[in-house]
Each structure stands twice: as structure tokens, then as C-alpha cells.
Fold:
Amino acid sequence: EPEVTQTPSHQVTQMGQEVILRCVPISNHLYFYWYRQILGQKVEFLVSFYNNEISEKSEIFDDQFSVERPDGSNFTLKIRSTKLEDSAMYFCARPRIGAEVTDTQYFGPGTRLTVL
Amino acid sequence: DAKTTQPNSMESNEEEPVHLPCNHSTISGTDYIHWYRQLPSQGPEYVIHGLTSNVNNRMASLAIAEDRKSSTLILHRATLRDAAVYYCILRALYNQGGKLIFGQGTELSVKP
Structure:
């Protein structure tokens, strides 16, 4: 299956700045997920997005975070005012084409966010 | 979602089989057993999944205990490229939103 792509691969920002991370899934794919992984720690679920609405979100996904599908294809994760502890790898993921949501997920290569 | 327990790390020699165990004693009847791996500096990668019967694919085999309270991921011939963190994850059939809950996983090192 086609890969999931993410941009940028590395983002460096100052504390308090807004960042937008982008993910390009296959067109017309309805379900999408964002995860993060702080260096040396486990992968953590952030949010799932279905048919242009948030389906589920974790405690990490507070008011500073938002997700959108601005142009009908790309998915974005926005952090409004970054904190030092937001430094992490951010992964997007999608289910296998035509599969139920409990089936496999395909992950992108991630965006490394560094907050200074 | 039910909890899984895996060893923190394991070592293997190249070209030898590797058996990665996972305990999930609180598994429910509708929980699927999924395995993912994460190579260094990469995103997680799907390996295999099953419900009750043993499963085989081009990457690995999954052996599921009869009582489903444990499972084993089998890499038939480990290569250096198999060095990764391996995650055993339970996913409920009716898992709203389909999220994956990762534990710490087992870090597999492969010696030449």
C-alpha cells in the first residue's frame, strides 16, 4: 500500500510559537490518527479523526492541540503555543484501505518537533 | 483495553529464530492480538495480528496459546534489520476510534 508522508521531517520552533504538522494520506480516506513519542518513551495516542470530526482524543490532546483536514486531502496537527515538553516525534497513521478500524494501521515516518 | 506484559529486552544471533513472548492474562473474547515493531528512527510498523488461530505472513508467525492468555511472535531467521522494539497490543473488536495503545515493548538486538 502507498506510504503515508509527513512534512516537515524536522521542525524547530521557539517556545510559545504555533506549529503545524502535516500528513498526506490516500485521498478519500476517512479515518486518521495522530500519535507522539517523546524521546526514550513509548508511543502515545493523541487523537483520531473520522469524516472531518474528532472521534476520540487522549488527555494529552488539550486545548493547545487541534486537527483539521483543510483541503480535503491533507491532515494537519496544530499546536497553538508550544511548550518545551511538546518536543517529540509526531506520527500520523491511517487504517488499511477498506479495512475495519480494528485492522492494521500504517504509520508515517514522523515529524521531529524541537521546542527551544 | 487489556494490558500486555513483555520482557524489556532480548538478544538474538543473526539467522537464528527468535521467540518474543507476550502475556495478556486479562484478554477478553473480542480482543485481537496485534504486533507492531519500531525500527530505530522510524514510525511503528505493522507485523501481524490474530484472534485465536496461529497466523503466518511473510514477516513473522504468531502463535496464540489455547487459553489466549499469552502469545509469541516468531521471527524464523533473525537478520540485523530485525533489530527493533516489538510491541504486543490488544485491540478490542469494537474499539471506538481504533486507537493503538503502546506499551514499552521488547527491544530486540541481533548480533552478527
Remarks:
- Chain A touches chain B through 26 residues (CB under 8 Å).
- Residues 17 and 81 of chain A are 5 Å apart (CA to CA).
